[in-house]
Amino acid sequence: MNQRAHSLFISDLHLCDSRPNITQAFIAFLQKTAIKAQALYILGDLFEYWPGDDAIDIGLHQSTIQALRNLSQQGVSTFLIHGNRDFLLGDSFAKAANITLLPDPSLLHLYGKPVLLSHGDALCTDDIAYQQFRHEVRSPAWQNQFLSQALNNRIAYIEQLRIKSTQEKSHKSMLIMDVNTDAVATLLRENAYPPLFIHGHTHRPYQHFIELDGHQCERWVLGDWYEQGSYLRLDADGCQSQQL
């Protein structure tokens, strides 16, 4: 039996210097669990924030990058989709970590079935203010202008945004910050009704069963790593949610 005949999916680790225990848990996960898989898919927000690839040498980033590189050198293919916190991860980071950046969404064929992957924030269409902000910061013009600033200035700006975001979330309903069912349905239709859809972002891990236009789909929401680590395991028999 092929011990590697499975893939793992994680999201929303939010690695940062203020929570070194989560970085340590992630590195241990790579060394003990992910090493046994065929592939690892990181579906966004690996870092609490990413100000640009010139931050590679800051804080705990080097240990994370080296652990990812070690994983790939052991034969585990590693992929990453940008999240709303780390959408500035670029080619320099990907090369240093030896990972492959995937577009959001990505439709793959794994273990005999189509599998749709996304971070998930684009589906939170009820949060109009966030979607406007997302559209702005994902534009090449905004990113070029932002990355032209000094690294310290970029970090200071992001810290201000984090404070503002925390304040705004306290006034938003939980419903607004979840995915919109119509947006999910549209995405599934656009991708020919994949039987499996995996995403993160909302921090609400759950297995949803969707019947859409006569098609059956499972929507798996990945958990965050603020309090504990969790991951999804996919093989030919289906998905299993696992705790570290």
Write the layout of secondary structure elements.
Elements: E1 7-10, H1 20-32, E2 39-42, H2 61-73, E3 77-81, H3 91-97, E4 100-102, E5 106-110, E6 113-118, H4 128-137, H5 140-147, H6 151-169, H7 181-190, E7 196-199, E8 206-212, E9 215-221, E10 230-235, E11 238-243
Parallel strand pairs: 1-2, 2-3, 3-4, 6-7, 7-9
Antiparallel strand pairs: 1-10, 5-6, 8-9, 10-11
Describe the structure concisely.
With 244 residues, this protein is α/β, with parallel strands linked by helices. It has helices at 20-32, 61-73, 91-97, 128-137, 140-147, 151-169, 181-190, and strands spanning 7-10, 39-42, 77-81, 100-102, 106-110, 113-118, 196-199, 206-212, 215-221, 230-235, 238-243.
Describe this structure in words.
- With 244 residues, the protein is of the alpha/beta class.
- It has one domain: Purple Acid Phosphatase, chain A, domain 2.
- It contains seven helices and eleven strands.
- The protein has helices at 20-32, 61-73, 91-97, 128-137, 140-147, 151-169, 181-190, and strands at residues 7-10, 39-42, 77-81, 100-102, 106-110, 113-118, 196-199, 206-212, 215-221, 230-235, 238-243.
- The strands form two sheets. Strands 4-3-2-1-10-11 form a six-stranded mixed sheet, with helices on one face. A five-stranded mixed sheet has the order 5-6-7-9-8, covered by helices on one side.
- The protein is globular.
- The chain starts with 6 loop residues before the first strand and ends with a strand.
- The model has no long low-confidence stretch (mean pLDDT 94).
